[in-house]
Fold this protein.
Amino acid sequence: MKPEAVHGDWWEVDTMMGIMCYPGDYFTREDMNTQHPGIKEECITYHEDKWGARMSASGYLDATDWTLHDSRRSAMQYLRETYDDDLGD
């Protein structure tokens, strides 16, 4: 798997199964309500100017969940600390 850090706007949804993050370019608030039916409005937050980080592979759905960070450096540091064995250093 390879590290991936993407800058932009993000949706963050606090679900019963944990925090889920989605790129803001691809989804609308209506999409969030559809993907997470019955979730309270206060559990859905839109963030501007954040870095999303995950590990991904070339296959379909071969990726970890996104996490949000204030800087690219913070995003990459998180990936190194969390997935050190998968980085292939």
Observations:
- The helical segments are 29-35, 72-83.
- The beta strands are 2-15, 18-23, 44-56, 67-69.
